[in-house]
Specification:
Layout: E1 2-5, E2 10-20, E3 24-36, E4 46-56, E5 60-61, E6 64-66, E7 69-70, H1 72-86, E8 93-100, H2 110-120, H3 131-142, H4 144-151, E9 154-160, E10 165-171, E11 174-181, E12 188-190, E13 196-199, H5 204-209, H6 222-239, H7 250-253, E14 256-257, E15 269-273, H8 274-279, H9 288-291, H10 298-311, H11 325-334, E16 336-337, E17 351-358, H12 363-366, H13 369-386, E18 398-401, H14 409-426, E19 432-437, H15 442-453, E20 458-463, E21 472-475, E22 483-489
Parallel strand pairs: 1-16, 2-8, 9-15, 17-18, 18-19, 19-20
Antiparallel strand pairs: 1-22, 2-3, 3-4, 3-5, 6-7, 9-10, 10-11, 11-14, 12-13, 17-21, 21-22
Helix pairs in contact: 3-11, 6-10, 13-14, 14-15
Amino acid sequence: MRVLEIRSEERWITSVGIDIGTSTTKMIISRLRLARTSGALSLPRYDIVERELVYASPIYSTPLKSADEVDAEQIGKLLAADYARAGVQVSDLKSGAVIITGETANKANARQIVHLLAERSGDFVVATAGPDLEGLLAGKGAGAEQRSRQIHGAVVNVDIGGGTANAAVFQRGKLVGTMTFHVGGRLIQIDGRGRLTSISESLRPWLEASGYRLEVGQQVSYEWLKQICSGMCRDMMESLNPLKVDLIKDAARKLVLGQLLRSIPPIEEWMISGGIGRLMSQPKPTTLEQTAAYGDLGPLLAHTIQESFEAAQLHLTQAEETVRATVIGAGMQSTEISGATVHLDESLLPIRNVPVMKLELSAEVVEQPELLEQTIVQAMSTASSLYERDEAASASVALALPALKHWSYISLQNISALLVDGYRRYFPASSVMVVICANDIAKALGQSLVRRSGERPKIICIDQITVEHGDYIDLGEPIGGIMIPVVVKTLAFHGGNRR
């Protein structure tokens, strides 16, 4: 989330993060201090200069109505009780993120839950996490991003919960890529006698390819469960080894959700976060009864991972956060400060879930009217065919302009005319046009757009926001009349090259 601030020199806002995972649900509440960091003669720029964690909820077991449905009402009650314990009113919340992670994201009512909880958690915009974004958030929360800056090398954090393991590789503070695995503590559930009570369908392809024939009700030994955990750890670690990525066995590929990360730098340090990361600090289970302390493989998987790292002589570093890494990472990711010159009508807000179409403009294209028109028309046409037209939505697509060294007065006038004409042509039902600028040109461009658009479409033009094609943005209501919360939602990093 970027917050656009215009007048105040300093302000505190309250932010919430809610993470609903396969095994656990948790919430944090933070206070964020915004302060001006630009000089008196410069365009105003505000940054978060202090983050204060004021409340962390207990770690709840994620309540389910059935194997395919999350119990939204029960989650709502848990969070309401947390707000009361924290002494926070829903009206106090000005920013935040609700994310559904792991296998819970595949539940039948997952999307409905996200929006329902956001509405009940205050007037802030929603950020949902796909597995790749979940890995990024956990890597930030666990400290892997910062650690990679400190050692000037590559650090990977593997966030392992009940249903998935989300790996994020950072090199010198930059995200190299992400991978997700069908590795988690609750993929196989057991009782204290070693009887299998549940086997996740997502793990069955790997089990069968690895020679394991398991069925619910079957009795298994401690040694057999240990072999399964060892096999999962081995295949996951090899998939993240840059020397073995081209030699991965077929069975190991079935453990991967999505695509392999093809370009992996030599990893200097590893971190494990998530529920499994927390279990690594607890006593090692040596019997079936101890293994089944939570009704699943979690304790055994945690210590098998630890042993696997030791055997492979890999440098395992303690994560700053384990089970709360994702939700803390979401708080770090979702709120930043940007922008000084904006053009908008406050009555148009909030606007949510607007897809982004980035206009691929270069300095050469901008200065050639015919080529500029061709580029903008093509982008508009593509956007109209890609995104379903929601008649209830005020804005169909947000148009993003790249950062250029110089925008001339003439180029802004030309772009204004082409944007308005193209938007009316391809999105005639939309009453609002959102334009996102990477440079400080939103005020001038917004005024030019309004002169050409008249009353329809209405114009929202913001700047210093960096987005990519495929992102979604939410624009919240002004905070205290002086700030606008903006969430940029990146739901996936396909191919492992997104930064």
